[in-house]
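Q: My collaborator sent me two sequences in one message, no labels, and asked for predicted structures for both. Can we handle them in order? The first one she listed is below.
A: Yes, handling them in the order given. First sequence, followed by its structure tokens:
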Amino acid sequence: MQDLVIRGAVVIDGLGNEPACVDVAVKAGRITMVGKISEDSLQTIDANGLTLAPGIVDLHTHYDAQITWDATLSPSPSLGVTSAVMGNCGFGIVPSPPPVRDLILRNLSVVEGMNLDSLRAGVRWNFEKFFDYISALRTIGPYINVAVLAGHSVIRTAVMGEDASVREQATLQELELMGKMVSEAMTSGAIGFASSYSLNHSGYNGVPMPSTIS
């Protein structure tokens, strides 16, 4: 007896095989059979005319701010996304010392085309360091799996403030502090380090995003 059988869907298995109209059985939360299934099940879904596929992993998102007020991460789940990576291009909202929080949001509003007033009203600053941000995400309980990259631009901003977008060379002390922040982020659960050198990435009032001049 299976827990669930989804019948008659066009299955795209993600392995490169041709789509096929088959049944899929699930037991104890795991797929147990794919094919023509005659076995009974506790629940049956008639998926005739529908497509069934593994969840999509979106490797490039910018939900870093939105996730603090929208646990659904709309519209990703409705598009079949079950896992998302945030912090791409080195843009994000952590680390976020209070004096530079509005600067972080101003730059983010331009480079990602977000409404600044919405960001100011929406972001819940119950974190400052990367560890606190990861803890906040666990409390939020996003609808899909998320992973976070440590961001070059936001780390540079956290250390250098307004100078991050105008002064190319950081001091040795600033570089040491940035390195410490990257190390803390990786220890706290970041899956990598993201940066951007694209000249198309400009911040508030046309200033370069910090990573592009470093």
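Q: And the one she listed second?
A: Here it is, processed independently of the first:
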Amino acid sequence: MRIRTCILLVLVLAAPLLAQTEGNLEVTSDPPGTTILLDGEFRLAGVTPTVFSQPLNGRYTLKASREGYESYETELLLTGGTPLRVNITLAPKTRFKAFLRSAVIPGWGQFYAGEKARGIFFGLAALGSGLVTLIAEEDFRDKKESYEDLLNEFNEERSIEVRKQMEETINLAREEAYDAETLRNISFGILAAVWTYNLVDAVIFFPNKRYESYAPRVSLNTGDDLSSVGLNLSFKF
């Protein structure tokens, strides 16, 4: 009677474990602990290693993501009753890739590294300083052109009296052009500083994390004579 009870207990405890080995789709990954999203006729989710035991049919989009790694996406054609095993290898995010992204668009490397707040800051800072630089450049060109036009008129003027009257206007136009050029140079320097610091930030403050699998592992232990049963549930962080 005792042996029969132990056998029944073993079958009850082992049923969920046996069910995990049968299914329409099995997904494993390197590294394990990757979040899997399956989108098609049904929307399903799991953490690798995982088995989707539902009878899935048709086209599904499989998306894999894990912090510190680049996302992965692929299309699957599933037929109910035909098991399919998919193994995914995620590429780790690197400082070099973050640097290249930030070199193209300030803040992009920070977004890539998962630092959204800093990405928004550098993106807005570069956008603002860039707009100020464009406005300052346009203002400088206009004032420089006005000064050069006045200077040409002054050189072509033959009347000494008129030339004396024009001197004050020309001097004022020259000062305005000089001030506009100074402002243009300052705004350009700020833009260059933001861009440079954005690159430094993307490299130096890139999150240097090592992720371990946090997926639970379940094992069933029985004695040689089925007189004892043990169920172990362990987590790795």
